Structures are given as C-alpha cells and as structure tokens.
Amino acid sequence: MVKYFVGKAKIKNWDKEDVLIWYFPEKVNYSCVFTLNDVKAHPIIFSKEVYKNYKPVSFLFANSGNANCLNGKEGYKAILNIEKKLKDIFKIKETGLFAQTGVIGEDFPEKNVLEVLKNLSLKNFKDLKTKEDLKLCARAIMTTDSFEKYEYYKDSEFEIYAIAKGAGMIAPNMATMLCFVYTNASFSKDELDVVLSYAVEKSFNRISVDGDMSTNDCVFLFSKENGIKVDISKFKKVLTNILKSLAIKIVKDGEGATKVMHIIVKGAKNRERALKIAKRIGNSLLVKTAIFGCDPNWGRILAAAGSVKLGINVNNCTLLIGPYLLFSKGEKTKYDEEKVRKYMEKNEIIDIVLDLGEGNSYEEFWASDLSYDYIKINAEYRT
Amino acid sequence: MVKYFVGKAKIKNWDKEDVLIWYFPEKVNYSCVFTLNDVKAHPIIFSKEVYKNYKPVSFLFANSGNANCLNGKEGYKAILNIEKKLKDIFKIKETGLFAQTGVIGEDFPEKNVLEVLKNLSLKNFKDLKTKEDLKLCARAIMTTDSFEKYEYYKDSEFEIYAIAKGAGMIAPNMATMLCFVYTNASFSKDELDVVLSYAVEKSFNRISVDGDMSTNDCVFLFSKENGIKVDISKFKKVLTNILKSLAIKIVKDGEGATKVMHIIVKGAKNRERALKIAKRIGNSLLVKTAIFGCDPNWGRILAAAGSVKLGINVNNCTLLIGPYLLFSKGEKTKYDEEKVRKYMEKNEIIDIVLDLGEGNSYEEFWASDLSYDYIKINAEYRT
Predict the structure, then answer these.
(1) Disulfide check for B178: which of A37, A67, B75, B165 has CB 3.0–4.6 Å away?
(2) What CATH number is associated with residue A361?
(3) Percent helix, strand and coil across chain A, each to the nearest 5
(4) Final residue of a domain: which of B227, B252, B277?
C-alpha cells in the first residue's frame, strides 16, 4: 500500500502541483533503472547510492520544475535536508528514493519545498487507491507534458499502480522521463531487477522524441515485501505492457508531436540489426518532418535505414506505410499517393513496416514527428 | 584546364541551371570520396565502379533536381545513355564521373537531359577561368541551397577551382553534399587519395545540419597529370582550408539555419573523445533549438556532452559561450545572462568552448541551429 501526498511548492512560478511523496508503511523491495548520461543530476547520484547499497527505503520524493542538476554542492545538500525532514515526518530511520525533473543548472528552491513539508504529518497523506489518485500523482511530476500519464492494473491476484512523466528529450536509453510503479505482488530484489530491466528495454528504450538523453531519467519499481505471490513470467508480461502503454503516451505527448510513428523492421538477420534500423528511422529529422507534413516520402525512410551501414540490400527490401506498399525489391510500386497521404492525415499512429528480406527477426520502435511547436517549445523554454 | 557547360534541362519544374558538365581535354588523375550509406544512388554506384578500377576519366556530369536514386533499373540505364552521348560529343573512349542530387525515388527525366545534349558540341563549352565561371557551375548543382558555394585559389605555383553543394541532410560522413575540385598541381592517384581523405575528414566530416546521411554524397578531386609539381604538404594544407571554407558555407546555408555553432572541445584525453563530444553537441536538437532561441542554456550543452557516455567529469569541466565563462568545475558562474544573450543575437557564428579538464587534446566541429524554417522546408519539400 502507498500513502501519497501532492503539494504545490511553487518550484517554478506556476500554480500547479509540483511535489509528490509516496510513503510505504509496509516494507518494500525495489529496483531502479537510471540514466546512463555522464552528467547526472543530484537525485540520480543520491538514489544510485541508495540502490547500490540496497538500503531499505520507505518513501519516494519527486518534484517537477527544477532538475536539481549542475547547480553545485548546494543542490545535493538540499536533498539531504529534505531526506532528514521526511524521516522526521514519518518517524523512520530508513531513507527513500529521489527523482526530480525540470530545468537544468538553476539553484534548487529548497526553501519552497521545506515550507510545504514544515507542517506536514502522516494525516495529510491519502491512500493511493483510485485512478483519480494516480492522475493527481502523475500531474505533480509534469513539466511540459500536456496530459497526465498513468496506468492502473488489477486482476484477481494483484494490482499495479504506475505513473510516468515525459514529453521531450526522450530517446533510447530513457532520456528525460520519470516512471514510478508500485505493486502488491511480492518479489525479491533480484527478481525485480530482471523484470524491470526487461520491461524498460521493451518500452522506454524503444521510444524517441528528439534523440536527446537526460541527466535525470529514472524508473523505480516498488514491490510489497509481504505481498501476494505471483508467477513471475505473468507479472513480467503485465508490467511490460503497462510500461509500453506509458511509453507510447510519452511519444504521443512528445513536444509539439502531431503523429506517432510505429516503426516495424522485419525480415532481418537478427533483432539487433532490426532495432538499430528502426531507431535510426525514428530519429531521422528528415523522416520526422516528412511524417509531420503527411508526405509519404519513403525514400527518406530507406535512406535513413541505409545510413546505419549494416549492409542492407534495397533490392531485397519492401516498405509499407499503413496498408500501402510503396516500395518493393528495388522498385517503387504504382501506389496512389493521394490515398497514402489521406491515411497519414487521418491517423495519429502511422505504421511504417520495412521488410529487409534477409531473415526472420523483427523489432519495433515508436517515435514522434517533428513540428514547428517542438522548435517553439525548445527555443523558448527558459523565457 | 577544365572546359565547362551549364544548361537548363528542366529536371524539375524550375527555370534554373540544373546540368553541369566538366570536360578535361588534358589527362587527369583523380580521387573520390563517396557516401557510406548502404542505399546508394545510381551515380554513386556508377562512379564507385569507375574509381575502383581507376578507369581514365575525361569528364564529370552532374545535375540537380533529381537524385536518380531508388528508382529501379531505368535510373542506371539513364546514366549509361548519358555517358554514351557525352563520349560522342567529346569523341573519346574514356568514361567520366557522375554526381546527382535532388529528390529520391522519382523517375529520372533522362529525356530532358538528352534533349539538352542533343545539339551539344565542344564549341558550347567555355574555359573555367574566372570566379563568375565557378559561380555558374556552383549554381547548376544547387537544390535547396540559397547561395552558390565556390572557392578559387591561386598562388605563384598552382591554382585550385572548387565548388560545393549542400544545405540540408548534412552530417558527419558527408551527408548530401557534392564537391568538385580541379587543380593544375600534379599528383599521382595515391597522393590524391591521401590528401583528399585528410581534407574531407577535417572539413565535410566535421559539419552537421540535421544529422542525416544521404545516398548521393561525393567529393571528386581532379588533378592535371602533366601539371605543376607542388610540395604535397603545402597542397594538403591549401586544399584542407578550401574544403573547410566550403563546409562552413554549407552549414551557414543549412536549411532554415540562422546561426552556426563553432564547437571546440578541448582539454580532452585524446582527440577521438573530443570529436565525439563535439559532434554530439552539434547534433543535439535541444542545443540546436536553444541556439536558435539565443538562449545560453549551457545545461543542455553539458547534458549532450555527458550523453556520449565517455566518463567525463563535470567537476573538471569549464564552458564558455563566446567570451563568457558560464560554468566552471561543477558550478555555474556569476555571468550576466543578458550579455551572453546579446552576444548570441549579434553574431552569426557562436563559439562554444568546452574544456573537459582531463588532458591536452582538442577538436572542432561546425553545426547549424534548428529553426521553424527547417521544418517548413522539410515538411513541404515535395509539395
């Protein structure tokens, strides 16, 4: 069970929830996945240390509006001060995990957060039970997100509560996104590590908005220690679907995104080749802008695939956009361009299927298009 | 000596020069650098074969408006037909090199080109001598370029004539650009190979507009066989400077570009690390959009540097934009944001200097910003 608190600390000059605390009254096991960026925000440095030593944790603290990154030693001290205050509030010795998101390189407004915590007690916490609760939690970690991202799962055996944040700077290897998951299904740390790394690989590591990688990404999975015994392969499947669903929501909410490309590369010699090519297509600016313009410019898709330099042979390749075969074994087909364009205009998710004609492996990848609004959001982010 | 012809074949529905032919009445040695994309346009396939067997060449044929790529066997036949016609015109047995640029995947309008060649004879060719001649040659290979790119060099010993094309899809490894160079300095094939690969590495492989790699890039260097004997290291230096100058012009003319970032990464353990980080900064969409917005968002620059995952330590790093020190050894400096912004607004070339504080190596890289016009040009390219 999770008790949650959502507050407004005015971390930025806004009137929105920007602080989220989860408190676990019962013992939990947990697993984490962190950004691989050399430049790590203070919450990542702190939480990695906790995880490395597998210290018992009783809470999660998250905020939006300030990434607490590249702002000197004071940023790290702020986390220690918040940690101390939360231990007092919960009357515990255990520490917690920290996650923060927002602008990089600015002083963290520690005072604003401590002001919110000042008179806080367990009485102010609510049970995390309904979708409305989840939505409220998700809202507190939003930055440029335009909608709350959350998933609730329940069957006869167990429950999963999951929220995520992310709208830009999304790329393979989880660039700027946060995701927190709680389940009453019970697993050991080692089991959670296996399950989470698999699910993240199949979800957040298969999406791209702009190819950038953040200093603050993390995914935390908490599991009740004395919870319900569940078959691990079933749990893995359910968790993967939940994270995949959240990942696709992040792409849909990509900064300025109007379309989601669902890229399937099949007929590959192996999955590694398929994934590399799918990623390159999803990250190509020329493909992204063509998709934004609803232009079935399949030449750019093939050129992006070829630029990975894996030795693919276009004379074996076929390419579909939606149900339309545009290119087959080295030759353009006689497709009706107007129909393809209409398909692209009508649908939010554009299916792109590239068959390399060299084997039996396949992989998939989701990526947003690139629009005027991406530029607007990111050229004017701090102003 | 080069004799040139520039014509209008209406390869696209435009009234601009789109065909360029260089004829070499005297024997030449030559060297080539080609795109590494698996998907290669027909002119690349043709010219690679010529170069591989080092067949004697007596001409260069280039056109803009159609890349002659991914359009089936007919596209390759078109080249053979043009080759045949040119051999007739020049009354020669030697072949030539082909380069084409423009839209991918469309039938090549061979007839339009042959119509231009129909009544052509050597009388229609002019000597390549003046800057005006060069400019006219450069114009014929322009697609979305907004100005002609050419360089002329002459000293007491030798001359170099160089033209280039490129405005989008520019990335390391020479994505969509053409460059043709002629010199009356005389070198063997092996010497030309060494000199050209060095000069390309220091110029076209150090620029980026959008990180994409084309199917049609090539650089051709022609040298008069019985020309002037010149010290090779002197020639290498001059050629490198010429190609660098053309490369920077390409970045300046990047589709929708308003600014050029000149990124210097220094204090690195080795040059490879420095170059990888400089490239990543230049290709980061978040950095590009910040530069477009004249926002000294140094956090994005450091985050991009860290995302290469080479184990850099921000506590050793310093970062300057122009003359302003923004970040020093883990801490933001007390800089005047308004001054930095003004520097960025005033200058077309923005200097970004990142010192990793780990060694003595440095590298440099040029990249454009990312503006609304990039999206406009590329979302509406074919319409």
Answers:
(1) B165
(2) 3.10.20.340
(3) 35, 30, 35
(4) B252
B149 in the same domain as B57: yes
User: How much is the pLDDT for A176?
Assistant: 66
| Same domain, yes or no: A209 and A353 | no
Q: Over 50: is that where the pLDDT of A175 sits?
A: no
Q: Report residue B174's pLDDT band, with 50, 70 and 90 as the boundaries.
A: very low
- Distance between CA B317 and CA B333 in Å, rounded? 12
| Percent of chain A surpassing pLDDT 70 | 95
Any chain B CB within 8 A of the CB of A297? yes
Assign B175 a pLDDT band (cuts: 50, 70, 90): very low
Q: From CA B52, how far away is CA B67, in angstroms rounded?
A: 22
- Cβ of B332 within 8 Å of Cβ of A104? The answer is no
- Closest Cβ–Cβ partner in B104, B371, B379 for A303: B104
Please say which residue of B252, B279, B311 terminates a domain.
Answer: B252
Classify residue A170 as left (phi > 0), alpha (psi -120 to 50) or beta: beta
Per DSSP, what are the bridge partners of residue B221? B31, B181
* Domain ranges, residue B313: 260-379
Q: How many CB atoms lie within 10 A of CB B122?
A: 12
pLDDT band (50, 70, 90) for residue A168 = low
Total domains in chain B come to 2
Q: In the structure encoding, which two tokens stand for residue A100, read together?
A: 């923060």
Alpha carbon B104 to chain centroid distance? 18
| 8 Å CB contact between A358 and B97 | no
Nearest residue to A277 via CA among A374, A367, A201: A367
Q: Does residue B176 have an active-site annotation?
A: yes
Q: Identify whether residues A264 and A137 lie together within a single domain.
A: no
CA distance A316 to A327: 10
Residue B265: burial class (beta carbons within 10 Å; 0-12, 13-18, 19+): buried
The two three-digit tokens of residue B345, written as one number: 């607004």
Give the whole-angstrom CA distance, residue A371 versus residue A40.
29
Tokens of B87: 């051999």
In terms of domains, do A152 and A242 share one?
yes
Dihedral angle computed from the Cα positions of residues A251, A255, A257 and A260, in that order, rounded to the nearest 10 degrees: -10
**Alpha carbon of B223: minimum distance to chain A alpha carbons (Å):** 30
B373 CB within 8 Å of a chain A CB: no
